[in-house]
């Protein structure tokens, strides 16, 4: 190749094109999305007085999100419900997420606009967690599962233990109200006189997991009854 | 602009004169390049160890899970980043700068600065990896290095990449070689898409899923505009050098380069299919991924035709053997990658280990193997010492070739099986998990083979670097004709 200006322009243009075509244009399309009411009026505007969705996460859940990120949970868990192939006539769907009851509707871009970091993930070594707060609303279940996933999976789970988020200590006086509740004959329960208490990070993480819900409609993705 | 030196009297240099210049160039880049090779190999060893641990953890969750710093969620990104920024980038800096300097007939001036920049790069990678283990990781694939480590990397890169561009500017002679197109392109592309991705995902996160789109764009770019062009540049350099004859077709090479440059950076977003992004985003990615067969077929065909009829040479020369293994893998892995994006296929493979298997196929069986070949060719010319042991080369080749084949096949099959089960909503998720376990176990056997290969390679290299008299006095290149006759040339 002897025509160097063409080589240089080509090199610069090739990446510039995809940058504009994918990154900038999606930022133009999606960067301005805001929370909105579940349904719109005839003119396509938000209805005054109705609550806006998605709702921004509260303090404790937000701390929990940071714990979720720093433990690298995203390496194995997604947080997205894909369109259902069976339910869509236009064959735009992919996968059985809705049939697996991982969500009543698919997720759309607007579901993520209030999140500082987007954790949609790309691998499902474990199940999707977008609606884990609806599927497992029991905080004690979540704690037991984090403390030792084998407790809640009949020993089958391959998730690592996050026991370092918990403290096993001798009961002094009355038992802590936060202590994990084990089943009566559980082999995983601490020795008599001891209790397993979640640390602040565990509390925040569970708060976050419980907050993961997809129980609202959006105009572009209504929950079909 | 930089066309000026063309009419320079030096372009009439004779062959002997060129050889003297090459000798001078090798001398000028000797210490920086060896510094990068040493760093690359040390990172390779670290990355292999981390990968092996995560491979064991993937089916034995109890393995090293007591301590927060070594849980899978942190070790896995640490392993990936050690391989990418530690091994991958260092070996690129070593081989690509050397090729660029040689093809431009331009010695590297003040290589000391290059070593300083390289030191900073490696400090940056170390800071970043400790950051990941300490829990400061980002949640975007390939961008996990914490936001405070990447500025070190980008600044260091500026002072590394610029040497390649300076060498190109100072080039002698008329033509620009195929390898130079690829290296020049990649040297410009990498800092650009890396900075954009850091800005939009890490430093000033864009709103919502724009982050996901940007990071998917980034991972596609790392593959197609950084690792692939550098490996192809190495292949385009090593093959004609070893065989002593030119590349088959200039026009095919041109088509391969142009189509890769045009399509390469559009493919990454295909993985967002079905996700919470506008449908056009993943559709564009799918179209580009399918069209990627054009650069893949043209390049592999061109390189195949260039080596056609030289089976014995390929088998005998360690450099060629590794490079051709890589080119073969490039063809197969890219074909799988293109087919994988069809909706009917990705419906099964999406989110499974099939994706990791295909990506490993490209990054290891193609990129790393070609770069190993480049090192086998380059390092003796820098150290003036031949590879001490052909047995160790033999071990390295078969460890890597067996290991990567086992790993990739296990991940592909395991992913395919679990993908089919996942699509049957009647199969409980825990059963899907259980059915992948045997494949993950097989995969870890592959990782062990890889580790053996890498240790053999590291031993051979350091033996060579600190060679004693008997190795130094060895005559002729170390060939693989028969592994038990060491040094038979």
Commentary on this structure:
The complex is a heterodimer of chains A (225) and B (489). Chain A has 225 residues and is mainly α. Chain A is 28% helix and 4% strand. Chain A has two domains: 1-32; 59-211, Cytochrome c-like domain (Cytochrome Bc1 Complex, Chain D, domain 2). Chain A contains five helices and two strands. Chain A has a two-stranded antiparallel sheet with strand order 1-2. Chain A starts with a helix and ends in a 14-residue tail after the last helix. The model of chain A has no long low-confidence stretch (mean pLDDT 90). In chain B, 74% of the residues lie in helices and 0% in strands. In chain B, helix 5 packs parallel to helix 7, helix 9 packs antiparallel against helix 11 (318-340) and helix 11 (318-340) packs parallel to helix 14. Chain B starts with 14 loop residues before the first helix and ends in a 17-residue tail after the last helix. The interface between A and B is large, with 76 and 85 residues.
């Amino acid at each position: 190749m002897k025509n160097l200006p063409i080589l240089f322009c080509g090199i610069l243009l090739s990446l510039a094109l995809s940058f504009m075509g994918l990154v900038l244009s999606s930022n133009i399309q999606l960067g301005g999305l805001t929370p909105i009411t579940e349904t719109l009026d005839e003119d396509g505007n938000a209805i005054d007085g109705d609550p806006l969705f998605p709702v921004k996460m509260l303090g404790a859940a937000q701390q929990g999100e940071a714990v979720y990120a720093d433990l690298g949970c995203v390496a194995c868990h997604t947080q997205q419900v894909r369109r259902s192939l069976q339910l869509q006539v236009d064959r735009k769907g992919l996968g059985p997420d809705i049939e697996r009851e991982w969500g009543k509707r698919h997720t759309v871009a607007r579901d993520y606009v209030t999140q500082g970091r987007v954790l949609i993930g790309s691998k499902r070594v474990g199940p999707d967690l977008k609606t884990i707060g609806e599927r497992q609303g029991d905080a004690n279940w979540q704690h037991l599962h984090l403390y030792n996933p084998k407790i809640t999976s009949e020993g089958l789970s391959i998730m690592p233990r996050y026991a370092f988020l918990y403290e096993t200590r001798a009961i002094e006086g009355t038992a802590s109200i936060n202590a994990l509740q084990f089943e009566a004959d559980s082999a995983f329960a601490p020795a008599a006189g001891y209790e397993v208490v979640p640390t602040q990070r565990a509390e925040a993480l569970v708060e976050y997991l419980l907050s993961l819900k997809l129980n609202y409609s959006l105009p572009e993705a209504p929950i079909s009854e | 602009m930089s066309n000026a030196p063309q009419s320079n009297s030096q372009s009439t240099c004779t062959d002997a004169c060129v050889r003297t210049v090459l000798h001078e160039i090798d001398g000028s880049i000797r210490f920086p390049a060896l510094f990068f090779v040493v760093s690359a190999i040390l990172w390779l060893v670290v990355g292999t160890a981390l990968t092996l641990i995560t491979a064991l953890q993937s089916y034995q969750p109890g393995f090293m899970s007591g301590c927060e710093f070594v849980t899978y969620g942190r070790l896995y990104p640490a392993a990936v980043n050690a391989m990418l920024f530690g091994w991958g980038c260092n070996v690129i800096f070593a081989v690509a700068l050397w090729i660029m300097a040689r093809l431009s007939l331009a010695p590297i001036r003040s290589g000391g600065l290059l070593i300083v920049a390289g030191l900073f790069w490696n400090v940056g990678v170390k800071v970043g990896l400790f950051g990941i283990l300490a829990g400061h990781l980002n949640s975007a694939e390939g961008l996990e290095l914490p936001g405070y480590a990447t500025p070190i990397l980008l600044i260091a890169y500026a002072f590394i990449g610029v040497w390649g561009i300076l060498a190109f500017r100072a080039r002698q002679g008329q033509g620009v070689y195929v390898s130079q197109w690829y290296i020049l392109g990649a040297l410009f592309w990498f800092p650009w898409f890396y900075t954009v991705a850091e800005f939009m995902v890490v430093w000033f996160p864009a709103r919502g899923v724009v982050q996901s789109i940007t990071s998917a764009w980034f991972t596609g770019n790392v593959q197609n505009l950084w690792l692939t062009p550098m490996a192809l540049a190495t292949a385009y350099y090593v093959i004609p050098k070893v065989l002593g004859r030119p590349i088959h077709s200039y026009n095919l090479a041109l088509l391969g380069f142009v189509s890769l440059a045009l399509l390469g950076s559009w493919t990454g977003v295909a993985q967002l299919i079905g996700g919470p992004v506008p449908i056009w985003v993943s559709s564009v990615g799918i179209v580009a991924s399918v069209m990627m067969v054009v650069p893949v077929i043209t390049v592999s065909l061109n390189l195949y035709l260039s080596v056609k009829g030289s089976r014995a040479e390929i088998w005998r020369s360690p450099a060629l053997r590794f490079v051709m293994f890589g080119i073969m893998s490039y063809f197969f892995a890219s074909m799988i990658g293109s087919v994988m994006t069809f909706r009917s296929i990705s419906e099964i493979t999406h989110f499974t280990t099939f994706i990791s298997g295909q990506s490993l196929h490209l990054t290891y069986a193609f990129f790393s193997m070609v770069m190993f070949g480049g090192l086998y060719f380059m390092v003796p010319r820098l150290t003036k010492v031949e590879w001490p042991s052909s047995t160790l080369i033999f071990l390295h080749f078969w460890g890597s070739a067996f290991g990567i084949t086992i790993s990739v096949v296990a991940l592909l099959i395991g992913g395919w099986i679990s993908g089919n089960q996942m699509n049957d909503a009647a199969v409980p998720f825990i059963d899907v998990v259980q059915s992948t376990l045997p494949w993950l176990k097989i995969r870890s056997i592959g990782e062990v083979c890889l580790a053996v290969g890498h240790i053999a390679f590291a031993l051979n290299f350091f033996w060579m670097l600190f060679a004693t008299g008997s190795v130094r006095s060895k005559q002729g290149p170390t060939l693989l004709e028969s592994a038990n006759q060491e040094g038979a040339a």
